[in-house]
Amino acid sequence: MSIPPWRASQANYANNQNAYSVVTPRTTVSRPAYGLGSHNVNTHMGSNMMATPAPATTTTTEWPDAVKKFVTRCFAEVRPEDRSTMEGQLKDVITQAYNHNTTWSIDWNQQSLPILLQRRFERESQSQLPTQLASLSIPVSASGPLSKKRGRSFEIASPNDTNHDTNKNQNNNKNKKSKTKSKKDKQSAFRGNDAEIFSSEKQEQRRKRFETNRPTNIYDINDADPDSPFIGRSTTLEKRYLRLTSAPDPANVRPLHILKQTLDLLKRKWKEEQNYAYICDQFKSMRQDLTVQHISNEFTIAVYEIHARIALEKGDLGEYNQCQTQLKTLYANKDLESYGHPLEFLAYRILYMVHTQNHAEIAELMIQMNYEDDLLTRGENEGSDSKLTDAQRARRYHKTNPAIQHALQVQTAVSTNNYHKLFKLYNDAPNMGGYVMDSFIDRERVSALTFMSRAYRPELPLSFVIDTLTFEDMQEGCEFLEKYDVAKFVIKKELSSQSTSEGESQPENTVACSYYLDTKNAYPYLEVAKRNVFKKVDIKGQI
Amino acid sequence: MSQHIQAVKTAITDKDGAALTQLLSITNPQLSDFAFFTNGATFTNDLKSEFNQNRTGSKTNIANMLLWHDALAKHWQVANAVLKDQDINAAFSYQNQLLQILNRVIEQMLSENWAVKVLKGVSRELRMLAVMADEQDKKLNRIRPAVTDSGESCGEESEMRLEQATRTINRSFTICLNDRTTNTALSKKWGIYYFVNELFKIYFQLNKRGLAKSILKVISSMQVNLPSLLEYPKSDAVCHLYYWGVMLFIDQDYTKAEEKLDSALRLCYKGSEKNQELILMYLIPLKLYNKRLQATEEIWSKFPRLMVLYQDLARALKRGDLRQFDELVATRGNFFIKKFIYLLIEKIRVLCTERLIYRVYRCLDSATRIKISQFVVGFKFTGVEIDECEIEGILCNMIYGGKMKGYISREKMTLVLSNKDPFPAVAL
């Protein structure tokens, strides 16, 4: 049970067949081909890492046609002023390939040279970015391969907006882009010693690194026609999840209409079989297909919401968090405003913040919610263009949303140690809030019991403890006491004659009533337990 | 016009930072003369001829002068954008470039720090221009309601200008931070907190306190090499302590927050009521919560807005008047939320319930045995509905927190209080 079954099976799966693309050997030995650039399917699999041997042509100086074509292509593309640089790089690449016996195994059609890629990137970025940004971001273009490093983040991002035929995504992508950039710039501001960057040795290292990585660029620039969206051709409903380490292959990616069928199938299977390992795996592959095709619409929201709910139900906070993060961006997309259940998931987020004790973020969320509510009411008073129906209003108005209000009350109860209220709220949490609360309810139970064992003397009826801390039954309560090492302080008390006679008719009830917790002796143990539970919160998969 | 340029030159040769700051400021009264004295086509030449008259001195001196010349040229562009074209966006970009040039100039000046003043003035105006430009953008885009794209920041969708400004100002900050001059008097390190504060102001506005925190980390890792905060200009120290305190406040580290804000208030210039008010807005509830200290009449009369905000609340707390407390919070809730104070107010409410418990005890002639149900009645009397379980919860909290000496007997549903000093912390 310790290894999640879907992971174990994933490994097997990778052994048997290559889901995405043919394994090509790495092109240099300077660095293991772990990077995005390698075509290895699974980085965990050592056997796959081995380069396939090249045809035994090492002794002859005969060059494959592909190399010749490659050279011609390079000369055709190069600008006159870059020609000498290009020739140098070309020579390096081919010599290296020759030295490492990879001239036959490299897919020369997909290769390019740093200088060419760099020019290409400059052309693209200049046409895309506002001039102001461009002037800020590309001052290093004269310094050779260095600028490529910066470039890459854009290149990866660029299919995002070019692939998508609608302008739905554009805002998001622009943001993303500017954020990456500002991060880079900040880094460089702290980097300090520029001279070091330009030292020839470092440059050489960097150049090598890019050679290893080069295939990343290939997909982005050569293959992908920036105007046509990436659409899969696969028609299989089910697919195992496998982390992509190279460009996706359309043959293995399911298009939207197939994915819709997949979702129906999965919903049915979940109801019938409740096999979480399988479902989680399938959902992950579905999310992956959505991502690589840049589908973000109503259906995407549905997929993430369903997966998030299933993950919650199974207490898989890590997976839940990944969905939650995506949902946050999806909900923020103005075109998708009327889809999904943003407030339901916002409520989960608040509860999750209670779990991670992230007070600052809760405070910020409260500000944000207030602000949005204000906008809504103000918009209505002004009678502006956004006349909302009652239903639309209810969808977005936080102050009247039961889930949000519940979550906020939970936060208050926790922060003011009002455990009585907290457990009441735990019992009638709307939607799946209870599952999120499961993540911290034990912690609060320990805390509450510590408080109680400090205050009540001489003892506490066990039934009262069970009731207050809202355990399902006696057994769950006892397990809890066992877990925190205080079960040994449960004492049995002689009952008065009156209740013994009652006890014979209802043995179970009286048994419960006759047990007590010796608070005085349990207290120090609980104090230790409390300190331990509050020590740290594991933030699973939170971004 | 040559007067202006002449003045700049003199200020540079005299190393008169204050004068130069004034000359390069967009609030300089002579700005319009400067902007209009020549048109763009002839400007560069004019400036060059003016600036290069009787140039003397060593080679480095001349090179330095050339950089200053660039800076002045940039400043002319800023002035032009502000006054002639009234183009706030252009003004911002030029000002940004101006700061970049000055960063370069000042980085090269080893063992002298007079010019840091100029850097301060320019970065300050850069921030203000950025804010103005962003506001203008927002107005122009106002057709759409401002629901955020990131969902995170408070409605202000990516403020590009302000974010750009942070990068340049950050550079000024690192230049000061990394000054290796051994002579403390001439070190640029004296500029650090000014730029840190500028950055904090921006980060708070952008809702990016995470970045502010990482700057705090950088500074504290350098602490050994820095003079004590108290040796810095008071304004820098106060501002820094204020932001630091507020950050701790938001993270609910209330003890440390009080400490920082306390020092901020102590250092704060007594004439600046606005700043004192800002500090006290956080400090008053902190004192209430941490030490149960009420603000003095003097404070209330000096800061009428804070009086409206807090005085009744503090009095309700003292009386243990839970109902009034809740009513007051209800009317001020949105403000408290906006200022990150709300979560603390929730905790202060607990203190109010505790006061109420104490008052019930007093009403019962300090009885040492009190039925739980009697507390319920007491709460009801002040208009608060509560059940026995919740009362028990409050009592547990008090006993656990050392605010009450005694125990609860579940069997008899009674609170049994110690004879001696049963409420060590609640009785004021």
Automatic annotation (TrEMBL), chain A:
SAC3/GANP/THP3 conserved domain segment(s): 239-486
Gene Ontology CC annotations of this record: nucleus
Name of the featured protein: SAC3/GANP/THP3 conserved domain-containing protein
PANTHER family, alphabetized: 80 KDA MCM3-ASSOCIATED PROTEIN (PTHR12436), LEUKOCYTE RECEPTOR CLUSTER MEMBER 8 (PTHR12436:SF4)
Pfam families (alphabetical): SAC3_GANP (PF03399)
Cross-referenced Gene3D superfamilies: 1.25.40.990
Species the sequence originates in: Nadsonia fulvescens var. elongata DSM 6958
Signal peptide span: none
Span list, region Disordered: 141-227
Composition bias, Basic residues: 174-184
Automatic annotation (TrEMBL), chain B:
PROSITE patterns, sorted: PCI
Residue ranges of domain PCI in the record: 239-422
MF terms (GO), sorted A to Z: double-stranded DNA binding; RNA binding
InterPro entries per record: Csn12-like, PCI_dom, WH-like_DNA-bd_sf
Pfam families membership: PCI
Record-stated family: Belongs to the CSN12 family.
PANTHER family for the chain: PCI DOMAIN-CONTAINING PROTEIN 2, UNCHARACTERIZED PROTEASOME COMPONENT REGION PCI-CONTAINING
Name recorded for this polypeptide: PCI domain-containing protein
